[in-house]
């Protein structure tokens, strides 16, 4: 079983940066693939990035966001650069024993952290 707790969200101006962190518990965390999803206001949850042996990104964040995973510290990070108002959303960390870019691929979820980008 894996439990996930996100942190690092906040209010930032357009063009700014944030670093989201996801702290994981569980002895077998290194065997999990991890993803970040976001849910903008009034919209469904969307894929942002995922990492296993390699990383995948949504087209909308390629070149701006970077996902990383530290198996020793049991942490996952999402570096958000060149933020845009349309990046405003609740960001969720998720873990899976499989791998994928869809929310239904993931069994374990954090509670989410709010990112708000002002114009």
Strand content: over 45%
What's the story with the biggest beta sheet? Answer: 7 strands, mixed
What is the N-to-C succession of helices and strands? EEEEEEEEEEE
Number of strands: 11
Q: What best-fitting shape do the alpha-carbon axes yield? A: globular
Radius of gyration: 13 Å
Mean pLDDT: 96
- The N- and C-terminal alpha carbons lie at a distance of 40 Å
Low-confidence stretches: none
Q: What is the overall number of helices?
A: 0
Share in helix? under 10%
| Structural class based on helices, strands and sheet pairing | mainly beta
In short:
Helix content is 0%, strand content 51%. The protein has 119 residues and is an all-beta fold.
